[in-house]
Amino acid sequence: MLLPRLIVCFIVGIFLADICYEYVSGWVLPLFIGALCAFLVSLFVWRGRRIFCFSQAAAFLFLGATLLVHERDTLRVTWSGEEQVCVATHLSEIKEKSKSYQLFAEVEGHRVQLTLLKDSTTVIPSPSDRLLLSAQFKTPKNAGNPGEFDYAKYLHRQGISGTAFCDTASWRILKPAESKGLKHPLTALRTQLLQRLSRHLEGQSLEVAAAMTLGDKQLISKETRALYSETGASHILALSGLHLSILFALFNLLLLRPLRSVRYVGGVVQLVFLFALWGFVVMVGAPLSLVRAAVMLTLLQISVLLRRDRISLHNLSLAALLLLLWSPQSLFDVGFQLSFMAVASILIVVPRLPRFKPVAEGISALWRLKWWAINGVQDLLRVSLAAQIGTLPLVLYYFHTFPTYALLLSLWVVPLAGLVLTLAFLFFLFPWASTLFGDVLSTTLDVMNAGLQCVANLPFASFQIPLTLPTVVLLYSLIPLTLWGIAHFRRRKWMLLGYGCVLFVCGAVEMWALHERRAIAHTPQLIIYNTRNAMAVHVVPTSEAHYLWTVDSIRTSQELAYISDSYWNKQGWGAPHYVHSDTLLSGIKVRKGVLQAGGFRLARLGYYKEAPLPSVAPTTPLPVDALLLQRGSVAPLSRVLSYYAPSMLILDASMGVRRRKLYKDEAAVCKLPVYDIAEQGAFMVNLTAK
Q1: Exposed, middle or buried by CB within 10 Å (0-12, 13-18, 19+), for 331?
Q2: What secondary structure, in 3-state letters, does 46-68 show?
Q3: Structurally, what CATH architecture does the domain formed by 84-178 represent?
């Protein structure tokens, strides 16, 4: 069990270096020397001594920290801030949206995210294309809205150093780069297969089939994502170990098992399968979840060829070590954590779960068939239960949803997923029978989706249970505690005592987190969100009611949909009341473009003709706490200040870059504080302090 312990130390080193990165940035050489010294010490110490174990653990811990710091340092790029002309290559993860293309590319040796506006004549780029760009690159940055997903950190952990936005006149496709290797023909093959699917399937069936077979999630609608998420079947939509296991089982049934007895042929067939496996991984874009599964399956096949144990914690640890050596930041990928915790839990928990064994003697063939079915059901339940035990804390931490019927639903989804992949394989393999297999595949997907919809409509289908990170760590500490208690039968009372202590601390942590959330929900506040396409001033005078001061309620609700899911619902606020014109409600007053709530007075100008300046200036400017200037504000600041006397100036994210700069320069002359929402994030103020 040495390798699993060492990989834990390696992971702890990566985790600690990520937390303390600002303090250890640039310390790659000292960390590497520390890892090397610890490893050299272990070479001159007898195995089994404590100092040997300590030095080995320290070497792996320092190695993990060294790799993480080195990778993060290479991603730190200082962009000039000026618009530059460059060529983008190695395009990947191309997503077509309603008005733009979004993709990853390589520019001047750095991975960047590009957003390319399109029109009716624009041709979608392909991975082998080269793009000529005129763009201004920036370091990834969040909008700064409360409760939003940390997209900047996500991009950084994906190896993205910058982002750029190009309008239709600022980019064009150059001559495609010469294809070297199999990536280009495999990508073209994937496109052809997607076109065949779209000719025979439609609607939700096409969405699920494209995601399950070819890894294309662009077609998946929000409704389909929500359905699979609420029922705990989201893993079906992502190519992962489940899909490769089903394909390997099909390969084993059709080829490997019949040829296993033939000398040397079985090994050759296994090698051919490995080449086909990695070709499939490259064809679907090499998503990280599929790469992890492919590495694990490759190690399994190598173990079989070498006559070693097929799967164990050592193989799992070796797969994790290889992936983390390649990219230490993949440790923070949600799929990485879920997949490895699921496999580790299966390896640890399944052998310790009870199993009903039939009596092998004196039973008829019918009873043998029944016992075969019972064995299949109980094996599936045991594996599903073990995987859910291992991943439940992470699921509650990241998604805050507990699917009640997920365990029983696996009896429905997993067999149907195997049938779907088998039918899709036949659909692609025999083009002359595409209509037949396409109809059967569509019917199977409709049945699976209908079953999920029925489960989603059941009472108590899911519960919202958010967990904090300390609670997740404490819950996972129960795994070694349980194994220790099983190994030392006489000390189980200490295991139970440890259970009680851990659960008590978890309860205390969650109660404190709940108290903090309620304190935020009951705090009167005003928020101006960082949204470029809609004006949104959010006022929460009480926990029972909250208001959105806006111009276009439809566009604003679309822009703030993700904030509603991640922040409003978490605080228990529900749907807001939209305010468009002068009104007087509980805790809020709006009159002539001025909002007053809790002693805080906010005036706004702009958004075309919604809040114009009066034709005649008052004798005394109206004193306000803040003046919000939005898109459409064209009056000079000197003229605006003859109407209002603000304590500070707020520039909305909807305003153009040039106009914001002009107002900043004028405010600097007037010595007026400026808050730029586009640069500094959402503006928030506590109304109780006013």
Answers
A1: buried
A2: CCCCHHHHHHHHHHHHHHHHHHH
A3: Beta Barrel (2.40)
**Spatial separation of the C-alpha atoms in residues 117 and 182, rounded to whole Å:** 30
User: How far apart, in whole angstroms, are the C-alpha atoms of residue 137 and residue 116?
Assistant: 13
Residue 519, number of CB atoms within 10 A of its CB: 9
The answer to whether the CB of 442 falls within 8 A of the CB of 205 is yes
| Spatial contact of 599 and 664, defined as CB atoms under 8 Å apart | no
- Give pLDDT < 50 ranges for the chain: 608-610
State how far the Cα of 141 lies from the Cα of 162, in Å rounded to an integer.
9
Q: Backbone phi, then psi, for 612, in 5-degree steps? A: -80, 165
Distance (Å, whole) CA 422 – CA 213: 10
User: What was the pLDDT predicted at 609?
Assistant: 47
Beta-carbon contacts of 370 under 8 Å, excluding residues fewer than 6 positions away, are: none
Q: What DSSP designation does 606 have?
A: B
**Phi first, then psi: what are they for 59, rounded to 5°?**
-60, -45
Q: Tokens for 94?
A: 């191309």
Phi, psi of 380 (to 5 degrees): -65, -40
Total Cβ atoms within 10 A of residue 361: 5
Q: What are residue 111's DSSP bridge partners? A: 106
Check residue 674 and give its pLDDT.
92
CA–CA separation, 102 and 94 (whole Å)? 6
pLDDT tens figures, 138-195: 888 888 888 788 888 888 888 888 898 888 888 888 866 555 566 677 777 888 888 8
What pLDDT is stored for residue 597 in this prediction?
Answer: 86
Distance between CA atoms of 72 and 631, rounded to whole angstroms?
37
Q: Tokens in use for 227?
A: 């359905």
Is 245:383 a contact under the CB 8 Å cutoff?
A: no
**Whole-number Å distance between alpha carbons of 610 and 542:** 27
Q: Where are the domains of the chain?
A: 2-74, 84-178, 184-457, 469-520, 525-689
Q: Are 545 and 586 in contact (CB under 8 A)?
A: yes
Whether the CB-CB separation of 403 and 231 falls below 8 Å is answered with yes
User: What is the pLDDT at residue 265?
Assistant: 67
Q: Which of 476, 323, 501 is nearest to 392 (CA)?
A: 476
Nearest Cα residue to 11 out of 320, 340, 334, 471: 320
Cβ proximity of 535 and 551 under 8 Å: yes
Q: Residue 162's beta-bridge partner residues? A: 112
Residue 560: enclosing H or E segment and its boundaries? none
Q: What is the pLDDT of residue 127?
A: 76
SS (H, E, C) 408-469: HHHHHHHHHHHHHHHHHHHHHHCHHHHHHHHHHHHHHHHHHHHHHHHHHCCCCCEEECCCCH
Would you state the structure tokens that stand for residue 649, as one six-digit string?
A: 């100036």
- What confidence tens digit (pLDDT) does each residue in 99-139 have? 888 888 888 888 899 988 887 777 788 777 888 888 888 88
Q: Which residues of 377-404 are buried (b: 16+ CB within 10 A; e: fewer)?
A: eeeeebbbbbbbbbbbbbbbbebbbbbb
DSSP-derived letter for residue 534 is S
- Residue 608's pLDDT is what? 46
- The whole-number pLDDT of residue 557 equals 80
For residue 673, give both structure tokens.
């504080």
> Cα separation of 115 and 120, whole Å?
16
In angstroms, the Cα distances linking 370 to 113, 355, 373, 380 are 55, 16, 5, 15
pTM > 0.90: yes or no: no
Amino acid at residue number 479: I
- Give the integer Cα–Cα distance in Å for 608 and 620: 25
Q: Are 129 and 91 in contact (CB under 8 A)?
A: yes
**What pLDDT is attached to residue 650?**
92
Element (H, E) at 677: helix 677-680
DSSP summary character for residue 240:
S
CA atoms within 13 A on the CB side of 328: 26
